[in-house]
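EI: anyone free to look at a 163-residue chain?
SC: sure, send it
EI:
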Amino acid sequence: MGTNGSTMLVPLRQGLPPVGPDDASSSASCALPPRYEAVRGARKFTRSTLCQWNLENRFDDVALVVSELVTNALRHALPADTPRENEPPVRLHLMHWNGRLVCAVRDPSHHGPAARASDDFSAESGRGLFLVDSFSDSWGWHPLAGTLHGKVVWALFLLRDER
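SC: here you go
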């Protein structure tokens, strides 16, 4: 692979925990404005949510992944003509199941995330999905169906220390 190339990733749903009435214990979401300051807001929302769930010990890894997913959505998934007055186009969802935490970012783009093929790990950009892959236990994406447009990019954390 070339040093500046990119690879489109196929939709991946495997690894997501089943969502049933007996499985889900907590979830929270917030709308994010189409501005880069939204990354700070997403981190703040993540901190307060993890504290409510007594998972503040996982904040560093989760916040890094949330920051990367939100940054990618803002940088790559918003068209220049995104309407600003309707519902914000990017949403962060945090879901907690017994022993698992999922961070999911919804955006209006139908294009899947692209991983850059680069050997330059000191580069300022292009490392986002590498960091998501490194700090989460698994991740993937899938297109939205029905009346929702766009896609969801998610990352799964196994909560090994949870009792």
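EI: The radius of gyration is 16 Å.
SC: 👍
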